[in-house]
């Protein structure tokens, strides 16, 4: 369905857990997140009902995210059950990749055709630093596992961080020469407890084009997401730029987000949330609640104008 500004909303992103096996410094505090006693994760039944309601309103694309979606117990079953809902045309996941060697085969068989895998550096020491304890080789094992089972295209999400990985822009772009992957640079967003980290480390994605002038824009008439795609001459893969800060893409926004604890976020960059569980208990159907969320999507975000710090951490929202 269309929102008040004529945008077709067909994409639901669901954070299915706020737990994670890493602690990326821009996403989560080191000690993890303490849950309030009344906070509860949406159950699989609730997630499935919500998706069915979304489909009745025109949603045809689902992304499972987190936290780390692969640490949620029963993930393969959840994927299978979502894949069986008539009307879902695209079912995807954003993951740090670490558990893909364990799950990729079953996930593919359950209907997950592609994944986005996060990777901010090719340097094992820096990887350990940014994730607080991760091992780089685990991510590459995850990428290899996804490839081996035929997930395609594999999209690598790279948060561009000043004085951390801007000296690796060339390496990331050159990775697409021989690998048929999409490397997507994402601008660092100031969110939650990690806003302090983001303060001096933001770098516009324009930097990528400045450093790699050989990148040529790709015209993609079937483009569905916010990434603008480029390619090196003769490269097998592509380079995407996702610019939520420098050039907001609000006029093309096609999504609503659901947090782990069942709050619908009409806009990523706003603290305004709709309490799915409470409204459902008060008698509203999931369809009515989703309609409210779609109708309350703002025209655009004001992240560049507001000094206000957003409260939620990314691991609860899912990116
Ligand atoms: N654990 C999974 C992963 O890392 O891919 C899924 C959840 S993670 C929150 C989803 C995406 O959000 C990742 O690509 C991550 O790099 C990105 N992300 C987290 N915090 C961010 C921030 N402050 N600014 C920009 N992107 C962020
Ligand atoms: Fe975990 Fe993903 Fe957040 Fe890193 S970005 S801490 S992997 S949820």
From TrEMBL:
Q: What class of enzyme is it?
A: lyase
Q: How the cofactor binds, per note?
A: Binds 2 [4Fe-4S] clusters. Binds 1 [4Fe-4S] cluster coordinated with 3 cysteines and an exchangeable S-adenosyl-L-methionine and 1 [4Fe-4S] cluster coordinated with 3 cysteines and the GTP-derived substrate.
N-terminal signal peptide = none
Where on this chain does [4Fe-4S] cluster 1 bind? Answer: 20, 24, 27
An example of a Pfam family matching this protein is: Radical_SAM
Which reactions does this protein catalyse? GTP + AH2 + S-adenosyl-L-methionine = (8S)-3',8-cyclo-7,8-dihydroguanosine 5'-triphosphate + 5'-deoxyadenosine + L-methionine + A + H(+)
Q: Tell me the PROSITE patterns matching this sequence.
A: MOAA_NIFB_PQQE, RADICAL_SAM
Q: What's the protein name?
A: GTP 3',8-cyclase
Q: What gene is behind this protein? A: moaA
């Amino acid at each position: 369905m269309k929102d008040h500004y004529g945008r077709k909303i067909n994409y639901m992103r669901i954070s299915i857990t706020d737990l994670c096996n890493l602690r990326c410094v821009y996403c989560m505090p080191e000690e993890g997140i303490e849950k309030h006693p009344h906070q509860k994760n949406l159950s699989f039944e609730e997630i499935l009902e919500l998706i069915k309601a979304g489909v009745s309103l025109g949603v045809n694309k689902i992304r499972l995210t987190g936290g780390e979606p692969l640490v949620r117990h029963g993930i393969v079953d959840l994927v299978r059950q979502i894949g069986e809902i008539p009307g879902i045309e695209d079912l995807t996941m954003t993951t740090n990749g670490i558990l893909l060697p364990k799950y990729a085969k079953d996930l593919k068989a359950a209907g997950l055709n592609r994944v986005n895998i996060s990777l901010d550096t090719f340097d094992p020491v820096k990887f350990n630093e940014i994730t607080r304890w991760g091992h780089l080789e685990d991510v590459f094992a995850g990428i290899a596992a996804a490839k081996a089972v035929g997930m395609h295209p594999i999209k690598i999400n790279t948060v561009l961080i000043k004085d951390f990985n801007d000296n690796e822009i060339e390496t990331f772009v050159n990775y697409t020469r021989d690998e048929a992957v999409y490397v997507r640079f994402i601008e660092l967003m100031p969110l939650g407890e990690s806003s302090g980290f983001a303060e001096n480390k933001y770098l516009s994605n324009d930097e990528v084009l400045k450093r790699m002038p050989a990148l040529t824009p790709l015209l993609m008439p079937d483009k569905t997401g916010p990434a603008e795609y480029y390619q090196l001459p003769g490269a097998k893969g592509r380079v995407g730029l996702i610019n939520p800060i420098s050039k907001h893409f609000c006029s093309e926004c096609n999504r609503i987000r659901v947090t782990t604890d069942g709050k619908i976020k009409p806009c990523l960059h706003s603290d305004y949330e709709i309490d799915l569980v409470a409204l459902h208990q008060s008698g509203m159907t999931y369809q009515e609640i989703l309609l409210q969320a779609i109708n309350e999507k703002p025209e655009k975000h004001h992240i560049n104008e507001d000094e206000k710090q957003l409260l939620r951490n990314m691991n609860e929202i899912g990116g």
